[in-house]
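dude i think i finally got it to work??
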Amino acid sequence: MLFQFTASPDFDFITQFARQINAPLRDDFLEIPQEMGQGYIRKVAFDKDFRLLIHRYTLKEPLIIKRDPAIEKNDLRSIFFYSNEEPVELTYNKDNRIPFSRNSDSAIQVTTNDLSSVVRFPANSEIQYMVVGITASKLKSLLSLDKPNAAIRSILDENDSFLFFESMNSEMKLLLNNIACTDRTDSLNHFYLRIKVQELLYLLFTSLYAREYTNCKHINSSDAEKLLMIRNEILRDLSNAPVLSELARRAAMSETKLKQLFKQVFGDTIYNYFQKVRMEEAAFLLKQVKLSVSETGYELGFSNLSHFSRLFRRHYGTTPKKFVSAG
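look at this
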């Protein structure tokens, strides 16, 4: 099933989606018809310029959500929180299918609505994500920052086009789960959700505020897709460090442009990003897959296990051996 829309401040996703599937919408709550699957979509409007959309469903056929770029410039920002472990496919420009979320890494997307995008959700798979729609002016009043950094300045500037990805930590995951599981019949439910969504935004903007670059460049749909492709090329083989010249060739960008845009979008240099994800994969192999320290190190391309232990300790504050024994 394809659902296509044009991004604009007055577009109401849940109303249009209900019309397309010919299902009743009651009190901003849409229950998925049994013939399509199970689950729901729920909208919570805190203010006319600040709203939340909760998606929780399993569908019998694939779902493709295609967002066309806004016809006119507007200051609406979309913040996409994808809390599933299973990857979905995200496209910004061409018809290439690129995994969006690998475990929890870069599972949050903050963007303007002038970028086109296509998200593909597989059939018979639990879909769980949330979208916060909020204007730049509303965000500015919520954040009340005297000296925002370059990333946050871009988000608050009505004329900027931007795309930022951020990792999702355990605290964010817990918040998302609490938001999804709230009782709609509770008379204080709306009040509770406003607090929790603002707490979620606080955690996100705390991470964005820690980014160190001094300026941000304009980004378009083509650049966005190339950066996703490069990110997934890095993740494809964590046993070998990325080669900048090869990545730049694949992206058809200069090395300088690729380095700057990658750090701008993902919040870190290409090499640091690679090492961070490598250590997160090491933690997964140690705790979940139950590989030994040596097996994990060799799996991730370390011929020197002492070097592996030093890097792991730098990332987690403890050695791989103590990390495992801590339970």
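The mean pLDDT is 89.
im so relieved honestly
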